[in-house]
Amino acid sequence: MGIKDEVLPQIRDDYHRHKEKSFLYKYILEHNEKLEKKLRDTPDNKREATILKSIQDTMINYGYPLSYKESTKEKTSNPPLEMVDAWYEYKGTTTGSIEEFDRLYKSICKSESSDSILIPVRVDSETGVGLYIIGKDYYRRGYFTYPQSIHCGIDFISNWKKIDSKGIFLSIAYAYAYIACTSVKEAYKDFYNEKLDCLEELGEMNGHIPADCPEKIKKYFK
Predict the structure, then answer these.
(1) Which of 14, 117, 158, 179 could be disulfide-bonded to 129 (CB atoms 3.0-4.6 Å)?
(2) Which residues partner with 119 through β-bridges?
(3) How far is Cα 136 from Cα 73, in angstroms, rounded to an integer?
């Protein structure tokens, strides 16, 4: 299970609720070059059917057909990072694209002025875990494994996991996974997996589900 399994069901639900005003409808029109060329020669009375066919094919390709009753056993592809990122922007849960954060990181990471920088890239509303650009001053001693020329890292922060003297705990996921990740785009690929890990840890911390616990809150317990 990955980030596509979180995002695509939401995108599909949004399409069924809003149709022509949905994220998926607008995204396909703006980002599908084949569809754009095809629509130039499509009569007005067949335009909507052509768009719908393109939307259906796209979702089938990603393994989430528009019809909830359908399923695909074929090998499916992952949606492009740009689509996932555009969805979060559409929901209003981000202030910049991953591409923009990636360019920013590359432009500041070798500057001493970024030693004490702290910028949230993505923060998950369910767990509180966030992906941040973090100045090396905020790392615990010995945990900043980047080259000497690098002054800030890309890592996860979960403020509920442990509390240190600064009030935060750095999980340093990428010191191990990427030997000091220097790409926001690479780090973001594991954002959903980090969320799942956090939910599992919260379950261990909170124990068994209490009586009369609302259904949507049960995920925070075993």
Answers:
(1) 158
(2) 133
(3) 46
